[in-house]
Write a structure and sequence with these properties.
Length: about 260
């Protein structure tokens, strides 16, 4: 059985555990093994498990390795995802429901995958429906990424609230977030990116018992520096993770290249 690559170094930023790996491949393999082992242990202890998964290019290698590892009784796992574009149909190439169905659900057949319907006729009712599902199911694990503007899920700096009273809300996307979607190849132009999205809020994400945040690649070096060495503030929403002892930030040498530590 393949072993899980170890980090080159580890440290803490306030309460947040930080691990730096030699490469994105090592990071992804480590997280895949860690998630597999956590799900297996959780199912053995309580009979089932629930997790929130993220989309985005930074998650693709990890999800592929996790699905390929095997060993998890997925029929006992309930899954959620954390955001979706407003008005985008389920078959759109950039749709996050499609991303999750193709990369996870169709391959492992979980007990349930609760999808956030961005094309619901009543988006505020959809936020309420998804909130009820989340609050009815304690979340054992949340796997997330960090956006180039420091967002987590679609909590961009202008709309992020660390004390948000909502668990799921409708938000306007800022231009930096929309440009990232264009650069990653999900949309052909800034104008074609939907202006609004549904997202789990910061409190909803941080309520998970274990949080693993994957932030590899050179393009994440600036937001990683801001989240770890700047203020804990909504100017970099990912900085909220520094208040979470149950969270681990996983970097590669590229994304950690601007850090003092």
């Amino acid at each position: 059985m393949a072993t899980s690559p170890a980090p080159l170094r580890t440290y803490r930023a306030d309460q947040l555990n930080v691990e730096v790996f030699a490469s994105n491949d090592d990071l992804s393999a480590n997280v895949a093994h860690r998630v597999r082992d956590l799900l297996v242990a959780t199912i053995a202890r309580q009979g089932s498990a629930a997790a929130i998964l993220a989309t985005g290019n930074s998650q693709i290698r990890f999800l592929k390795q996790l699905v390929g590892l095997g060993g998890v009784d997925w029929s006992k796992v309930t899954l959620f995802h954390m955001d979706e574009y407003l008005g985008v149909p389920a078959d759109h190439p950039a749709c996050f429901r499609r991303y999750m169905k193709e990369r996870v659900a169709s391959l492992v057949n979980p007990r349930e995958f609760h999808y956030l319907a961005g094309d619901a006729d009543l988006p505020l009712d959809e936020c309420a429906r998804y909130t009820a599902l989340l609050k009815a199911q304690p979340i054992d694990l949340c796997c997330m990424g960090v956006g180039e503007n420091g967002h987590i899920a679609f909590n961009d700096p202008p709309v992020a609230r660390f004390d948000d009273p909502h668990w799921v809300k409708l938000v306007k996307l800022d231009d930096a977030c929309k440009m990232q979607q264009v650069k990653e190849g999900h949309f052909p132009s800034l104008e074609s990116v939907p202006p609004y999205a549904l997202t789990l809020t910061v409190p909803a994400l941080l309520a998970a018992k274990t949080i693993l945040c994957l932030a590899p690649e050179k393009r994440k070096a600036v937001p990683v520096k801001n989240m770890l060495e700047g203020p804990i503030a909504t100017s970099c929403p990912a900085s909220a993770l520094r208040t979470c002892a149950q969270a681990t930030l996983l970097l590669d040498t590229d994304s950690a290249s601007l850090l003092k530590a």
